[in-house]
């Protein structure tokens, strides 16, 4: 219940503060609270209406894994490449997010009728059939690859970022003083503790994988 409450609250806040208040900048706080409540109610109704789609799959866990696999890759690409590659810029990040999310929503749009309608199926061998039957993790890797290519291509086709503004935010823009300060912030004990945590995680993974 707490997870659902958090999702509904976050969705209502996103709509109220980022969309409604931007369209109505002079709106009162009482109005914003009322709009937030309405947005929460709408999200609850959408969630209830989506239950048949989830039931048509192989369970809630499998469905959540699929949704995350379709929507998370572009976010990972932006953060991961953005940290290690200083030449990448804002337009490249935005393009990667748009293309990646579009691919994810496209796959969700293809999968939904199959899960929602019992007698629905695509023609075997057709493009939609191939997309629907592609293992979701393979499709996730495809989104990851395409998003990365788009991010790099658009970044190099547009202006370089202002390196002074991103100083210290990427490995390529870290100054010598920042490197020294970072090195002095941890000790051998921290490294050993981190290594033990990684070993414990690996051991748990190997044990529970069966």
Automatic annotation (TrEMBL):
InterPro entries for this protein: Na/Glc_symporter_sf, Na/solute_symporter
PROSITE patterns to which the protein is assigned, alphabetical: NA_SOLUT_SYMP_3
Gene Ontology, cellular component aspect: plasma membrane
Membrane spanning residue stretches: 6-23, 35-55, 67-85, 92-110, 136-157, 189-208
Organism: Novipirellula herctigrandis
Membership in a protein family: Belongs to the sodium:solute symporter (SSF) (TC 2.A.21) family.
Membrane topology of the entry: Multi-pass membrane protein
Pfam family, one: SSF
Protein name as annotated: Sodium/glucose cotransporter
Single Gene Ontology MF annotation: D-glucose:sodium symporter activity
Annotated compartments: Membrane
Keywords, alphabetical: Membrane, Transmembrane, Transmembrane helix
Gene name for this UniProt entry: sglT_4
Primary subcellular site in the record, as a coarse category: membrane
């Amino acid at each position: 219940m707490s997870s659902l409450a958090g999702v509904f609250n976050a969705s209502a806040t996103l709509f109220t503060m980022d969309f409604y208040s931007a369209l109505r900048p002079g709106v009162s706080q009482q109005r914003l609270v009322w709009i937030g409540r309405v947005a929460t109610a709408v999200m609850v109704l959408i969630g209830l209406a989506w239950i048949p789609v989830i039931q048509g799959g192989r369970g809630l866990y499998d469905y959540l894994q699929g949704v995350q696999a379709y929507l998370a890759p572009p976010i990972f690409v932006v953060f991961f490449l953005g940290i290690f590659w200083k030449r990448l810029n804002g337009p490249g990040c935005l393009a990667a997010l748009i293309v990646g999310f579009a691919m994810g929503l496209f796959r969700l749009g293809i999968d939904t009728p199959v899960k929602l309608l019992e007698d629905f199926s695509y023609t075997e061998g057709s493009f939609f059939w191939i997309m629907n039957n592609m293992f979701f993790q393979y499709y996730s890797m495809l989104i990851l690859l395409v998003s990365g290519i788009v991010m790099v291509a658009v970044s190099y086709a547009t202006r370089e970022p202002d390196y002074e503004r991103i100083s210290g935010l990427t490995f390529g823009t870290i100054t010598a003083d920042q490197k020294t300060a970072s090195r002095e912030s941890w000790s051998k004990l921290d490294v050993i503790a981190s290594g033990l945590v990684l070993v414990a995680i690996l051991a748990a993974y190997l044990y529970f994988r069966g």
